[in-house]
Amino acid sequence: MRWLLPSAQPGICSSKQPNSVVAMGPTRSRRCRAVIQALGAVLFLGWFSGSEAKPSISVWLSATVQNGVPIQNDGQRFGCNDKIFAVIDLVGLQGGEHRLQADWTDPIGKIREHIDYPFNGAGATRITVWLKLHPPKGSALFSFLNPAMGMDDFIGLWKLVVRVDDDTRLDTQFEVLC
């Protein structure tokens, strides 16, 4: 955004007095100061009243559950058979209807799971989503020999993209190993 300010040319909002001997009314510097203050007030009020604050998003991942609730840990590595929970905290929501979207993208760039969750809320809320990887049909027969059989596309760095109201976005990465 570009801001236009009065120039420093003499006679245009400068502190230099006009050449005339008799000054009628306020001086130019007072007029300019009043104009700038009024403009600042209008800009501030317009920004304050017309802006809707975007909510902030934080996400933590876990495969550990205690009493049916995911427990926060610092790990970003998960096994092929883990159920991976993403606990999403939203703060600063305006009151009303909202939409949360989450895309779980595998290491080759394919979206494996898409979640579209409409909800009503205001202030702060917590939403938990999860991903459970399933091996392709037929690979379970040989999984006792190699637990990673059929899971090659799942091994590596994953990305979880969380969006709220198509406006606020947060990307989180994690790793799946077998």
Overview of this protein structure:
With 178 residues, this protein is mainly beta. It has two domains: 9-51, no CATH class; 56-136 and 147-177, Immunoglobulin-like. It is built from one helix and eight strands. The chain has one helix at 28-50; strands spanning 56-62, 65-66, 69-70, 77-79, 83-105, 111-132, 156-164, 168-177. Residues 1-24 and 41-51 have low confidence and may be disordered.
- Low-pLDDT stretches are 1-24, 41-51
Q: What is the top-level CATH class of the largest domain?
A: Mainly Beta
Secondary-structure element series: HEEEEEEEE
Number of domains: 2
Count of DSSP H/I helices:
1
Kindly provide the radius of gyration, computed on alpha-carbon positions and rounded to a whole number of angstroms.
29 Å
Give me the CATH architecture of the largest domain, please.
Answer: Sandwich
Question: What structural category characterises the helix and strand content?
Answer: mainly beta
Portion of residues in beta strands equals: 35-45%
Estimate the mean pLDDT confidence. 76
Shape: elongated
The CATH homologous superfamily name of the largest domain equals Macroglobulin (MG2) domain
Biggest β-sheet strands, sense, barrel: 6 strands, mixed
Nutshell version of this structure?
With 178 residues, the chain is mainly beta. 13% of the residues lie in helices and 44% in strands. Strands 1, 4, 5, 6, 7 and 8 form a 6-stranded mixed beta sheet that branches. Strands 2-3 form a two-stranded antiparallel ribbon.
